[in-house]
Design goal:
Oligomer: single chain
CATH superfamily of the largest domain: Response regulator
Number of domains: 2
Order of helices and strands: EEEEEHEEEEHEEHHEHEHEHEHEH
Helix content: 25-40%
Strand order of the largest sheet: 8-1-2-11-10-9
Number of helices: 9
CATH class of the largest domain: Alpha Beta
Number of strands: 16
Shape: globular
Low-confidence stretches: 1-10
Structural class: alpha/beta
Distance between the termini: 45 Å
Radius of gyration: 21 Å
Length: 315
Amino acid sequence: MSMRTDNGKILLSSGTNEVEFMEFYLAGVSYGINVSKVIRVVSLSETQINSVPEVPPAILGVIYDQGKPLKLLDLKQALKLEPKPDSTMRQLIVIARFNKETVGFLIDGIQKIHRTTWDQFQPMTSAIQGGGYTTGTIQYEDRIILILDVERLMLDFSSHKPTAELSAPPEPSLKEKRNTKCIVYAEDSKMIRKITSDIMTASGYTNLKVFENGQDALEYIAHTSEEAHKEGRHLHDYIDLIVTDIEMPKLDGLTLCKRVKTEIQDDHIPAVVVYSSLINEEMSRKCRTVGADAQLSKPHGEEIVAIIDKLCFNN
């Protein structure tokens, strides 16, 4: 079962604020994952699992997909869900790719794929989300579908944890130079938002305007543009660069980029960097289609600083 067309193209157009979620079951509960992360779905009964020593119980072992090894994660164990009777009879494996990593997720079954828009996505509040692995919900007919935070899940089961530490402190003159730039940063993940903000601040980019979704970022950019015009100035005099995730409530990053590039009436539009776990060859083409100046797969802390440097100072 494939989530994409044979030539690998993602079905949705760029910058429409649309998203497709694949609804699947775990212990009788409906969960969802962005179709853009899904490569294919295979049967557990037809897959050989190779055990791996000294790993958490939720990591069942290594499987091979098209000749390449990848780890298999039992989502029920990872989420501490109690299995229901007969829920393991015809289990499936979702082969997913994000953050430049391919992984297998063991699930109980698939319902269908739902197409919706990001403004229909209801994010979890910090109080509800806590230490859990859901970013929010969508409602379909009489069902509430929990959208799984697979990035956070995999980070917790990875030996390589992203940090805000720099390999070397920047020169004082470079920090001072970076401090003159204003960056708008949109990211809905609290963890990634903090790590990336801390990295940029430690590098000298202390003038940050941080937002939890694309809509709030767009409204700030549009308001700043209006104020700039009243003063006879340009938007670029107040905002030097925009860094945005793709998957965000209310307005996704591709739509944010497209609207900034096409709707803001200014001859000096800031550069836009798309910083997302979804970046691959096809998504990079989508980023360019909406006018993004650069794209990078997260989390790669010091690489994002290098891209910001290039766009802020080399142009």
